[in-house]
Each structure stands twice: as C-alpha cells, then as structure tokens.
Amino acid sequence: MSSAHSAVPTAGSVPSPTSPVSSSPALAAPTITELLDFVRRTARNEALIASLPLDPEGRTWIRLDGPGGSEAWLIGWPPGTGTGWHDHADSIGAFTTAAGALKEHSLAVRLPTDGWKTLELTDGVDRSRELAAGQGRAFGQNHVHEVLNESEDVHAVSVHAYYPPLPRIRRFSRTGAVLRLEQTESPEDWQ
Length: 191
Ligand SMILES: [Fe+2]
Prior knowledge:
This is Cysteine dioxygenase. Belongs to the cysteine dioxygenase family. InterPro entries: CDO_1 (IPR010300), RmlC-like_jellyroll (IPR014710), RmlC_Cupin_sf (IPR011051). It is a single chain. This protein is mainly beta. It has a domain at 22-110 and 125-166: Jelly Rolls (Sandwich), CATH 2.60.120. It is built from 3 helices and 12 strands, in the order H-H-E-E-E-E-E-E-E-E-E-E-E-E-H. The chain has helices spanning 32-43, 46-51, 187-190, and strands at 60-65, 71-77, 85-87, 92-99, 101-107, 118-120, 126-132, 136-139, 144-148, 156-163, 169-175, 178-185. Strands 6-12-11-3-9-5-7 form a 7-stranded antiparallel beta sheet. Strands 1-2-10-4-8 form a 5-stranded antiparallel beta sheet, covered by helices on one side. The longest helix is centred in the N-terminal third of the chain and has 12 residues, at 32-43. The protein is globular, with a radius of gyration of 19 Å. The relative contact order is 0.23. The protein binds fe (ii) ion (FE2). Fe (ii) ion binds at residues 83, 86, 88, 145.
C-alpha cells in the first residue's frame, strides 16, 4: 500500500503547497542495512538480553526503540515454539539470534496482495536457514517466513526490527504445497 503519488505539481493547477509544518526533525527511514546493524548491535548487549523474562510455557517480548522510528522487539523462544507462516506486508525488517539458535523457513515468492484464500506453491520456492547466536538476516517487503526454535532444551532469544512499524501481519497455514490465508492480524494480536 505504498502511495506512489508524490507531489508532482501540474502546471496551472493548485497553488504549490506550503512546506509542511514539522515540529520535530524529520527521521530518515532506516535502510535494511541499518536495521540489521541495529539488531546485531542490540544482540551483543548482554545486560539487555539477560533482562528478558523467559517463560518455559511460551514466548516473551520486550518492545525496544528501533532506529528511525522502526518497531523493534526482543523475543524469547522456549524450545519447540515458533511463529507459524506469516508476512509483514510492506515493512522491511531484520532479526538476529542473540542466544540459542533459530531456524527460518521462507518462501522465495511474491504472494498476491489480496483476493485469494489458497495458493499452490511451485517447486523450488522453499528456503531454509539456521541462525546461530550472532547470526541474523534482513528482508525486504512482503517477506514470507516462519521462525522456529527447534531445540529440545535450549531457550532462544532474538532481536527484531521492522520499518515501517508493522501495520498488519497475514497468517498462513501450509499443507504441502498449499498455502492458505488464515487471518490478518494487527500488531496487538500478534503478541
Ligand atoms: Fe516475521
């Protein structure tokens, strides 16, 4: 839903707009590299990582201030937990494992935005990567993935950043090659 309509004046039309009044310095949108740099730096902050309460029954979160107005989270993952398949709409993002290890499964495919309920994935779109402590990745818009802690006994902790702050998350279920759109969640639901 990026608005492609930049203010291109049409000759003889409306008067040129006055400069927008800004009460705060404009924040430049963070790049994917800056998000990745932020999550890597944050993951090395041992005191912060240690401050996250860990619950053996479920994931835990602390909201962080990300760079440039981005949305950032410290997340704890008990053994065997995961996100399920989802995407992040138009947000770009980055995450890195700070403790333990995470597995990411992703799809190298651009899903249609709307108007579908099930999709049959073609062969060869699956990607998988193991992210040990200190390892992270960045992703662009419309990234579809699931993240898991596959360990049987080790808690994982990770740091995430998204820009723009997540407007919505689409959740999918998957049976073999068939991806089904289950629901669209706002960030409040996502926690
Ligand atoms: Fe995600």
